[in-house]
Amino acid sequence: MRILALVLCLLTYAGCAQAQQESTVYTTTEGIIQTAAGASVVVNDYKGTGLNFRLNFGQATAVATDRPLLYLVNDLMLQAIVVPAEHFQAATPQQTLQGYIAHEAEYLNEAIGHPVVPKVETVRLSKTQTAELWTYPMPAGMNEEVTQQIFLNFLHGEFIIGLGSAQYKGQSPAAIRTLLLTTARSMVFSPSPLPTDK
């Protein structure tokens, strides 16, 4: 899935309103599972790949949109993106991710006709795993409300997992960074399908 799709999805949903969070012990509304532990989304057999995962939002207010894996979390856009890593495989996980980012930047350069030069930072998700956090400013004239795009990519098995957001005017890049890192660090992966009722 191309990042351009994320850009268009995020821009399309700038005016989305949040739905009220349910107060019962358990409800499922618009793909969001609400429990006493917080909000989450379960994805089983992602696009027939056998990849099963849960996005955990904790006590944040999370609202699904009508776009797959695109959510409003405490008024911040969050989209999950999964791509096969095989086309970007390199000597190290960091080089694999950097190759993917370079590929996406090149695609964006061609697709939108503006130079996109991402700023990339290696961040730690855990003691044993790093990720690439990358941003680029929204090209002039594309959207006056969005100042930059922010992405976080990491490897899980044969997949590149991506979380992305758009920073709108008045939003804190630090808050978006925290959302992406917290969500990535709390993701649960399973070789078998995850329950969708808890």
From TrEMBL:
Keywords: Signal. Residues 1-19 form the signal peptide. It comes from the Bacteria. The keyword Signal applies. This is DUF1795 domain-containing protein. It comes from Hymenobacter metallicola. The lineage of its organism: Bacteria, Pseudomonadati, Bacteroidota, Cytophagia, Cytophagales.
